[in-house]
Design the sequence.
């Protein structure tokens, strides 16, 4: 059964969940690192806080740079 | 000494996270709602709109995840 | 609150809002997801899982047995289900050479959806995927699949290199961002895949339980309680409809993301 072909966008759920996965991963990685460093140096919760913020900022940076070169975005090379 | 009228026992951190998730929830709804409306108005600008929509989503979601970590930072 | 079933006997005639008895609202907590086995080691989720699988197998076996060129009624429905997966998910995301994964995606979609549907079918109102082990098993299967496909299709070293260093970034920040990419693709992907399905089903079941218990609890008061009970019953009906939507949607998203991960392993991003 073929219906009229509407353009299906299948990449946006992928990109949206990739964004969220990157945020969580950055938070976990650098939050964990910050917690470890803070634990060794005395104040564990301060280390966790600094690491979490740094991880979130780094993930946002990554997402921004990756979204700049997304397919279909304004930076896509047009076929001449 | 003041008599306690109301008290919260148990996990206050989860209450904190629940309150912290209200704002980003509304924010993400507004972002994607306006994004879908903009795509409906001008479908050929789809690439630009999607890029900015996802960037705004990342920033709003970052706050919600920060609210998830905060109970462990300030926790008992 | 102990036990597997909401003990209606605990809501005595004197229990209502603002009393001095101490029998307040028996709020459902996580213990409503625990079950005693019926026989041997078979608890209710396991029985529902096996029954659901049996139903899917029997229905699609009957639909595609003796398949004719002009389809009959059951074959039409079976074909609609199959073409939904093949055209709507697999061909859009993976492309034509992903046809060998269509049976897997088909099975995952109907398995997850049938497991979710048990949450609103009367008599067995328990969504199977609200026990954490079932989505985790599915997510581990998908994880093994896309890791193995990526390493076999692109070579083991190249797979990780393509994943960790997406092109088009200033070179200096690769040191900070490559570990984030690695953890995001290898560890966080199956975690979010399973937690998304589990949390949606858990929350939906808990919500329906709260509204149902509130219907019975509020009815024990005089007139205000009856109004509250009727409102709670209406909310139960509305949320059952909402839950039906969410169940289908979660099954669709699980299958779509499985297809996306397979596509990401087969065709490397460049």
Sequence:
């Amino acid at each position: 059964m073929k219906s009229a072909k509407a353009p299906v966008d299948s990449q946006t759920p992928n990109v949206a969940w990739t964004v969220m996965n990157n945020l969580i991963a950055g938070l976990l990685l650098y939050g964990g690192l910050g917690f470890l460093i803070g634990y060794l140096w005395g104040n564990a919760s301060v280390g966790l806080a600094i690491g979490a913020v740094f991880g979130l900022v780094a993930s946002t940076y990554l997402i921004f740079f990756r979204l700049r070169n997304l397919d279909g975005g304004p930076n896509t090379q047009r076929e001449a | 000494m003041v008599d306690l009228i109301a008290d919260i026992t148990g996990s206050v951190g989860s209450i904190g996270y629940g309150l912290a998730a209200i704002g980003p929830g509304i924010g993400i709804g507004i972002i994607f709602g306006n994004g879908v409306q903009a795509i409906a108005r001008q479908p050929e600008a789809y690439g630009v709109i999607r890029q900015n929509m996802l960037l705004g989503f990342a920033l709003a979601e970052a706050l919600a995840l920060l609210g998830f970590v905060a109970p462990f930072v300030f926790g008992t | 609150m102990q036990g597997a079933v909401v003990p209606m006997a605990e809501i005595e005639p004197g229990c209502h809002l603002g009393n001095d008895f101490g029998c307040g609202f028996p709020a459902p907590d996580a213990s409503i997801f625990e079950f005693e086995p019926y026989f041997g080691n078979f608890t209710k989720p396991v029985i529902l899982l096996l029954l659901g699988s049996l139903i899917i197998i029997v229905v699609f076996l009957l639909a595609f047995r003796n398949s004719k060129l002009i389809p009959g009624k059951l074959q039409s429905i079976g074909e609609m289900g199959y073409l939904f997966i093949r055209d709507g998910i697999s061909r859009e995301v993976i492309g034509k050479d992903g046809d060998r994964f269509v049976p897997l995606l088909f099975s995952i979609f109907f398995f997850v959806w049938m497991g979710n549907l048990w949450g609103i079918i009367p008599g067995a109102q328990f969504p199977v995927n609200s026990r954490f082990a079932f989505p985790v098993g599915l997510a581990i299967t998908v994880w093994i699949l896309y890791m193995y496909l990526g390493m076999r299709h692109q070579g083991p070293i190249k797979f990780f290199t393509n994943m960790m260093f997406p092109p088009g970034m200033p070179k200096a920040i690769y040191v900070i961002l490559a570990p984030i990419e690695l953890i995001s693709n290898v560890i966080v992907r199956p975690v979010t895949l399973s937690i998304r399905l589990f949390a949606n089903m858990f929350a939906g079941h808990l919500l329906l339980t709260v509204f149902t218990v509130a219907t019975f609890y509020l009815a024990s008061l005089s007139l205000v309680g009856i109004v509250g009970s009727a409102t709670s019953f209406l909310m139960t009906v509305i949320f059952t409809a909402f839950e039906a939507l969410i169940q289908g949607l979660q099954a669709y998203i699980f299958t779509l993301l499985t297809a996306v991960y397979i596509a990401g392993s087969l065709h490397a991003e460049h």
About this structure: Chains B and C do not touch (no CB pair under 8 Å). Chain B has a mean pLDDT of 87. The CA atoms of residues 33 and 53 of chain B lie 10 Å apart. The longest helix of chain B spans residues 46-74.
